[in-house]
Amino acid sequence: MCLKFGFPLLLSTALLVACSSGSYILSTHDGRLIATDTKPSLNRSAGVYLYTDSQGQQQSIPQSQVQEIIKR
């Protein structure tokens, strides 16, 4: 009985978590596409977007270089 309901529940939970990940793409004015694992946040005083890249490293990019931020 547990397997009858347990597996579909586990599968649907896994799909929900995978679909709601915080992946974003930063599109730059020079045509680069940068994949991020977190939603980029703007540090207004420094004029840069802060994000975590796909390797888990904290990165920044000047606001003036970012054309668009797209949620995947």
UniProtKB/TrEMBL annotation:
Q: Which domain of life is it from?
A: Bacteria
Q: Which PANTHER family match?
A: POT FAMILY PEPTIDE TRANSPORT PROTEIN, POT FAMILY PEPTIDE TRANSPORT PROTEIN-RELATED
Q: Which Pfam families does the UniProt record give? A: DUF903
- What's this protein's name? Lipoprotein YgdI/YgdR-like SH3-like domain-containing protein
Extract the signal peptide range: 1-17
| Lineage, highest ranks first | Bacteria, Pseudomonadati, Pseudomonadota, Gammaproteobacteria, Alteromonadales
In this protein, which residues make up the domain named Lipoprotein YgdI/YgdR-like SH3-like? 24-70
Q: Which organism is it from?
A: Ferrimonas pelagia
Q: Which UniProt keywords apply?
A: Cell membrane, Lipoprotein, Membrane, Palmitate, Signal
